[in-house]
């Protein structure tokens, strides 16, 4: 499942995939894969992403109920 929440949060901070990747110490391709839903990050990476985007785990990684 695509993670559009990360993409939206990144856009609000005017941050590119590369900039986010650098902040959380992964490759840009890892951020691309997370946003596309092709890669499930570790909890530690999730936390680093949340801190970089000033969001909570619920904000970015909790699936909304249908």
UniProtKB/TrEMBL annotation:
Keyword terms, alphabetized: DNA-binding
Residues annotated as domain HTH cro/C1-type: 6-60
Keyword DNA-binding among record annotations: yes
MF terms (GO), sorted A to Z: DNA binding
InterPro entries associated with the record: Cro/C1-type_HTH (IPR001387), Lambda_DNA-bd_dom_sf (IPR010982)
Pfam family, one: HTH_3
Membrane-spanning segments: none
SUPFAM superfamilies registered for this protein in UniProt: lambda repressor-like DNA-binding domains
Family annotation (CDD domains): HTH_XRE (cd00093)
Protein name: Helix-turn-helix transcriptional regulator
Species for this entry: Bullifex porci
Taxonomic classification: Bacteria, Pseudomonadati, Spirochaetota, Spirochaetia, Spirochaetales
